[in-house]
């Protein structure tokens, strides 16, 4: 099993000051990483969230229009973000259920990365997890692929998306990717969120439109967190990818 990191160790080892989180739908980040985000923001790390879709194809109320669902889910996500200390929520306009790593979407992500210049980007893993297929919604996989492509090579290539360079959004190098929903064999980082598990559940509770059985949801989440920790506490799992460090040679 991968080594368990405390939040302090994560901040120090990765040199975190700013993190960009990218999710396909409202509630994704709260299921996958809100305990880690709460721990980071409590230590002064700025976390900004970008949603690719409004989540208008989600929920269980057949009488509610997609427009009303989108409005409701945006409100729910903003409430959940406040619980864990996310500083800002932005929304792109990808079609819920049909996200693809297009030139346009990658360009939007490169723009956000160059504006925020985070040390780490937190998002989905682009590989399908066969151990529990529900982790690998097609929108999640496409989001992960778009994020990885944006992080390398496009955000650091001044000749990619030259309109951004012309606007003064200069190329720079992302240092870290933290990818949630990874196949189990890819997990190499566990973050101890003991003490923040209740904030995670509170954030998840804000997504009322998505929980057909809220109590079972809470039980399942806690089971997963305990299993990830393995020593009586609670942890979230990631595939940590070191994109750039001082020894990195571009292209190798």
TrEMBL record:
Keywords: Zinc. InterPro entries: GlcNAc_PI_deacetylase-related (IPR003737), LmbE-like_dom_sf (IPR024078). GO terms for biological process: glycoside metabolic process. It holds the Pfam family PIG-L. Coiled coil: none annotated. GO terms for molecular function: hydrolase activity, acting on carbon-nitrogen (but not peptide) bonds, in linear amides. PANTHER family: LMBE FAMILY PROTEIN, N-ACETYLGLUCOSAMINYL-PHOSPHATIDYLINOSITOL DE-N-ACETYLASE-RELATED. This is PIG-L family deacetylase. The lineage of its organism: Bacteria, Bacillati, Actinomycetota, Actinomycetes, Micrococcales.
């Amino acid at each position: 099993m991968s080594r368990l990191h405390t939040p302090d160790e994560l901040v120090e080892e990765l040199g975190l000051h700013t993190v960009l989180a990218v999710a396909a739908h409202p509630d994704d980040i709260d299921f996958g990483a809100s305990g880690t985000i709460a721990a980071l923001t409590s230590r002064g790390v700025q976390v900004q969230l970008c949603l690719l879709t409004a989540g208008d194809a989600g929920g269980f109320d057949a009488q509610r229009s997609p427009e009303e669902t989108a409005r409701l889910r945006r409100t729910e996500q903003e409430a959940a973000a406040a619980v864990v200390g996310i500083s800002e929520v932005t929304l792109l306009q990808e079609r819920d259920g049909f996200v693809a790593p297009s030139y346009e979407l990658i360009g939007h992500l490169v723009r956000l990365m160059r504006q925020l210049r985070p040390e780490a980007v937190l998002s989905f893993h682009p590989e399908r997890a066969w151990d529990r297929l529900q982790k690998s919604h097609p929108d999640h996989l496409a989001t992960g692929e778009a994020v990885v492509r944006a992080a390398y090579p496009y955000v650091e290539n001044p000749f990619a998306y030259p309109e951004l360079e012309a606007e003064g959004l200069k190329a720079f190098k992302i240092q870290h990717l933290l990818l949630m929903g990874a196949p189990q064999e890819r997990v190499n980082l566990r973050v101890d969120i003991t003490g923040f598990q209740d904030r995670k559940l509170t954030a998840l509770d804000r997504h009322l439109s998505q929980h057909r059985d809220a109590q079972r949801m809470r039980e399942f989440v806690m089971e997963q967190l305990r299993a990830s920790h393995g020593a009586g506490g609670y942890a979230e799992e990631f595939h940590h990818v070191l994109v750039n460090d001082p020894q990195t040679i571009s292209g190798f």
